[in-house]
Design a protein that fits this description.
Layout: E1 9-13, H1 18-29, E2 34-39, H2 42-55, E3 63-68, H3 76-88, E4 93-96, H4 111-139, E5 143-148, H5 161-180, E6 186-193, H6 199-209, H7 215-221, H8 231-242, E7 253-256
Parallel strand pairs: 1-2, 1-4, 2-3, 4-5, 5-6, 6-7
Helix pairs in contact: 1-2, 1-8, 3-4, 4-5
Length: 266
């Protein structure tokens, strides 16, 4: 433990499970004094809070809070920000990890499915960033934001048309906001994560691709590094980018993957 987020407060959307939970736990281990997570399921939130509180047990006065919200509903992203500020007095860092991952091609995606992706993957981060940046500016304090984007923003598979559109939009928003608020000392970056081993990915593979129970072993065997991306490894990268150890870096969209877009085998 290096105390990379010593005495910082953090808001993590999608923090009740998978990658979001791994990020919240990593932040707690690295000295954050307050961590708020957002999710829809109260039972998952309680289990997540127990894990986060355990991770932050070494920090005096550590607090963790869960905000139960359906972020697809208007006003809920704004409420999550407001409740975090009410609970901890401020937001030092924001992580947008919540998102939609359902499938659709250009030809079979309905307007409703497209709107679902745009709402969760673009509108929600826009609104949480708006609230967090307003808080930071009002206090005259520096801050950091990390958006979980996707390697699919480079183009993605045909069945990820609405997902790719929304994540590409988030990448553009990340750069726009980083440029707009660089003199406020608010650093905003994004991670393009590749294929990652999470419980949610298991559900996605079985629901949309008819995957068998041993899908993970087969998928990992085909990867250059012999495994899929791991939530705890991504979480460490997120904490670093949120911390002062990442220096002046802002507006960067970092490919966090083992495959290289634009490179091809003969």
């Amino acid at each position: 433990m290096q105390q990379l987020l010593n005495q910082k407060t953090l808001l993590v959307t999608g923090g009740t499970q998978g990658l979001g939970l791994a990020i919240a736990e990593a932040a707690a281990r690295e000295g954050a004094v307050g961590v708020a997570i957002v999710g829809r399921n109260a039972a998952k939130a309680e289990a997540a809070l127990a894990a986060i509180r355990g991770a932050g047990a070494a920090t005096p006065g550590f607090e963790a809070a869960a905000i139960i919200a359906d972020l697809s509903e208007p006003g809920e992203a704004e409420r999550a920000v407001a409740e975090t500020i009410d609970r901890f007095g401020r937001i030092d860092s924001l992580v947008n990890a919540a998102g939609a991952t359902s499938r659709g091609t250009l030809l079979d995606t309905s307007r409703e499915l497209l709107q679902e992706h745009l709402t969760l993957n673009l509108v929600v981060p826009f609104m949480t960033m708006q609230g967090a940046v307003a808080d930071m500016r009002e206090r005259g304090a520096p801050g950091t934001i990390l958006n979980i984007i996707s390697m699919s923003m480079h183009g993605g598979q045909p069945y990820l048309a609405p997902y790719t559109a929304s994540k590409a939009g988030l990448a553009g928003l990340t750069k726009n906001a980083a440029f707009a608020h660089r003199f406020d000392r608010i650093r905003i970056n994004g991670l393009n994560i590749g294929w990652t081993a999470t419980p949610g990915e298991a559900v996605t593979q079985k629901t949309f691709h008819g995957a068998a129970d041993d899908w993970l072993a087969a998928a990992e065997a085909a990867q250059p590094m012999g495994k899929l991306g791991q939530p705890d490894e991504i979480a460490d990268a997120v904490v670093f980018l949120l911390s002062e150890r990442s220096g002046v870096v802002t507006g960067s969209i970092i490919d966090w993957d083992q495959n290289v877009p634009g490179a091809y085998d003969q």
